[in-house]
């Protein structure tokens, strides 16, 4: 279905879009929206690996985003760690958490797995809300600046906050997409897709089902964590909302809308769902209504998600 | 199906084209939490801002120029608030921003306002918004700390020194609990019990029983917002406490008395603003005119009484309009300077006097100690 050529084409398309889009930006505000889309897309690409490749569901990935975000807020303050290193620390912590909780809960299937991951997300969000002495509680806490922008300024390259984060988030998304696309055709990726198709069949041909599921879960957790860190760093302020239940749902919705098996599709889904609230400010009251309607229409008419369905249709017509 | 895609694209295209529309003279931006968990703050704030801008424009605008208001609903999400703040500054090119219903959203907007040099009046309570003072950031609500100080001062006057505290774990309750614990010692009050409840809890009898069993407790203080304090008040009455119950300014509304029941709420004390007791104010009270006029206009337009939080938005708009009038031009820096020079400006919350060292401009006199009596309010000081 997807070849090596397909991989490079997809990456090239993504890179071109990220690089050329700013030419059409009428104001600095669009850089901010673009950066948000890339951050959301990054965590959704992680979900593509978990849901699209391995066929497992998670409704708690905002928990990992929360861990990544608060790592960036807490580590510099309490451990004196540079915020950049805190991103890595957050990713490591998220990975270990995913490993620990993934082992028992990935034995569950379907609804049970969804509920267990949901529980994890809510737990993280509750800890962040209630450990006030550490996290500032529901009011949140500020995040130290990365310092990279000031460094660039000293080197004579002046960037606005929006431009800088547009570049950084776009770059990280490219790396994330590249890794995810590489994984697709690797032995691990094939094993994941095999267990997606049928766990029984996969284990008969020698796939270690539990191990592959766990691997997908940990990888996607690291994606969500890095995305959470990027969000915290660019916002400069973080509240427990980032780990909230709604954020988890939003991520899954983005993945499903764009096409859960496709990296580009996930990015498209993230773009649409990040843009919609901005576009719909005029009808703020109907925002949820429109979002719901879009989801229903897509689910009924394009069950594979936007991008794969459209691509298939175009290909179908060409033949 | 094709139609669905085309419609989606159409909506996206329309959104890109929309921001060009605003062409009026003074561009005022606002981002409040009109929906979501903080809607109790943002909804009356949005209504107030819209009503006042309409009124001002109908009366000929500021210095002959109309206000063009751009108001966004951030849903209480700090991430959205930051995006909207960026949008207001970069895309809508506003000269001033009002908003930030919660501390989280305010802290997100604040960064953008400071960065771009746009005056910003926040509607959130935390002291960290104006301490340390930031050049372009002001706020209208008194801090939680001031509410604590007002309550403790009243307790000391009653000879109460040992207090049992029960607070909600929501943003409002948690923040005020921290401030009250922090300031109690300095005022000679000792917190002898410290209980919490979740914002959705339906029964606080166990926590209250524990407080009652605490040695020497002389009063109960309940920092919180929403249904929690009403339930605390009802449970408090059911348990037959014979010590006073203090609530916070978070429940200073008639709705609280209805929710708790007039019998249970009888004798409850809390700090409130003049807005709550507009009809009880003496006619020579400095706030009488502004409070009664605003309350009447709001009542007429929305058929409900304005809340304390609505009053914060009223004062923010009024202060901003006053500053723009005095600045004589809609230039962000000129407005900022004029704001900082504001002296003795009477609002619904209190009388504001800003200075380079003080961007809150209120003192404890802004609070009035109130007691619920016969299902209504009575001013104590």
UniProtKB/TrEMBL annotation, chain A:
Species name: Paracoccus homiensis
Transmembrane segments: 36-55, 85-103, 110-128, 164-184, 255-276, 288-307
Amino-acid biosynthesis listed as a keyword: no
Name of the protein: Amino acid/amide ABC transporter membrane protein 2, HAAT family
Cited InterPro entries: ABC_transp_permease, LivM-like
Predominant subcellular localization, coarse grouping: membrane
Membrane topology field: Multi-pass membrane protein
A molecular-function term among this protein's GO annotations: branched-chain amino acid transmembrane transporter activity
Record's GO cellular component terms: plasma membrane
Keywords of this entry: Cell membrane, Membrane, Transmembrane, Transmembrane helix
Automatic annotation (TrEMBL), chain B:
Protein name: Amino acid/amide ABC transporter substrate-binding protein, HAAT family
Residues of the signal peptide: 1-24
SUPFAM superfamilies, A to Z: Periplasmic binding protein-like I
Highest taxon in the source lineage: Bacteria
Organism: Paracoccus homiensis
Domain Leucine-binding protein, residue spans: 25-361
Coiled coil start-end: none
Keywords: Amino-acid transport, Signal, Transport
Pfam name, any one: Peripla_BP_6
Family: Belongs to the leucine-binding protein family.
Any single GO BP term: amino acid transport
């Amino acid at each position: 279905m997807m070849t090596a050529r397909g991989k490079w084409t997809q990456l090239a398309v993504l890179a071109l879009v990220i690089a050329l889009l700013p030419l059409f930006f009428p104001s600095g505000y669009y850089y901010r929206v673009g950066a948000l889309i890339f951050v959301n897309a990054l965590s959704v690409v992680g979900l593509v690996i978990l849901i699209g490749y391995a066929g497992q569901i998670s409704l708690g990935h905002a928990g990992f985003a929360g861990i990544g975000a608060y790592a960036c807020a807490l580590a510099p303050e309490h451990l004196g760690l540079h915020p950049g290193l805190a991103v890595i620390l957050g990713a490591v912590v998220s990975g270990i958490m995913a490993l620990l909780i993934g082992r028992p809960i990935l034995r569950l299937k379907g609804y049970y797995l969804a509920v267990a991951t949901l529980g994890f997300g809510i737990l993280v969000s509750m800890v962040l809300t209630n450990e006030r002495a550490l996290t500032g509680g529901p009011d949140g806490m500020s995040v130290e600046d990365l310092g990279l922008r000031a460094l660039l300024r000293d080197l004579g390259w002046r960037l606005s906050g929006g431009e800088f984060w547009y570049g950084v988030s776009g770059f990280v998304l490219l790396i994330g997409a590249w890794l995810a696309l590489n994984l697709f055709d690797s032995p691990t990726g094939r094993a994941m897709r095999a267990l997606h198709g049928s766990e029984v069949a996969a284990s008969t041909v020698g796939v270690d089902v539990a191990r592959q599921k766990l691997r997908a879960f940990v990888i996607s957790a690291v994606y969500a964590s890095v995305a959470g860190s990027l969000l915290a760093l660019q916002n400069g302020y973080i509240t427990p909302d980032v780990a909230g239940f709604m954020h988890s749902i939003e991520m899954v919705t983005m993945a499903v809308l764009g096409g859960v098996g496709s990296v580009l599709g996930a990015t498209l889904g993230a773009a649409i769902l990040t843009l919609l609230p901005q576009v719909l400010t005029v009808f703020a009251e109907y925002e949820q209504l429109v979002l719901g309607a879009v989801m229903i229409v897509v689910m009924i008419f394009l069950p594979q998600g936007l991008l794969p369905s459209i691509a298939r249709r175009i290909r179908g017509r060409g033949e | 199906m094709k139609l669905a895609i085309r419609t989606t694209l159409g909506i996206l295209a329309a959104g890109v084209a929309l921001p060009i529309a605003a062409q009026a003279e003074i561009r005022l931006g606002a981002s409040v939490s009109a929906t979501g968990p903080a809607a109790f703050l943002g909804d009356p704030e949005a209504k107030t801002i819209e009503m006042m801008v309409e009124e001002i424009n109908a009366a000929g605008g500021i210095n002959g120029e109309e206000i063009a208001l751009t108001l966004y609903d951030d849903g209480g999400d700090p991430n959205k608030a930051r995006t909207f703040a960026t949008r207001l500054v970069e895309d809508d090119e506003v000269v001033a921003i009002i908003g930030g219903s919660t501390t989280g959203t305010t802290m997100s907007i604040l960064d953008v306002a400071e960065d771009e040099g746009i005056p910003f009046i926040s509607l959130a309570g935390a002291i960290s918004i104006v301490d340390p003072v930031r050049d372009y950031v002001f706020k209208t609500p008194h801090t939680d700390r001031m509410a604590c100080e007002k309550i403790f001062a009243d307790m000391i006057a009653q000879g109460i020194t040992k207090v049992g505290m029960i607070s909600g774990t929501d943003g409002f309750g948690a923040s005020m609990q921290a401030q009250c614990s922090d300031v109690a010692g300095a005022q000679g009050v000792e917190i002898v019990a410290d209980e919490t409840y979740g914002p959705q809890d339906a029964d606080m009898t166990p926590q209250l029983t524990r407080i009652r069993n605490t040695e020497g407790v002389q009063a109960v203080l309940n920092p919180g917002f929403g249904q929690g304090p009403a339930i605390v008040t009802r449970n408090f009455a059911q348990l037959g406490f014979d010590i006073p119950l203090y609530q916070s300014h978070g429940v200073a509304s008639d709705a609280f008395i209805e929710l708790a029941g007039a019998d249970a709420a009888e004798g409850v004390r809390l700090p409130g603003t003049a807005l709550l007791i507009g009809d009880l104010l003496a006619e020579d009270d400095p706030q009488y005119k502004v409070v009664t006029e605003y309350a009447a206009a709001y009542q007429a337009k929305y058929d409900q009484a304005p809340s304390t939080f609505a009053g914060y938005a009223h004062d923010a708009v009024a202060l901003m309009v006053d500053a723009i009038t005095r600045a004589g031009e809609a230039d962000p820096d000129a407005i900022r300077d004029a704001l900082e020079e504001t002296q003795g400006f009477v609002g619904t919350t209190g009388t504001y006097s800003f200075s380079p060292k003080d961007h809150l401009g209120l003192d404890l006199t802004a609070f009035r100690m109130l007691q619920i009596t016969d299902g209504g309010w009575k001013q104590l000081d």
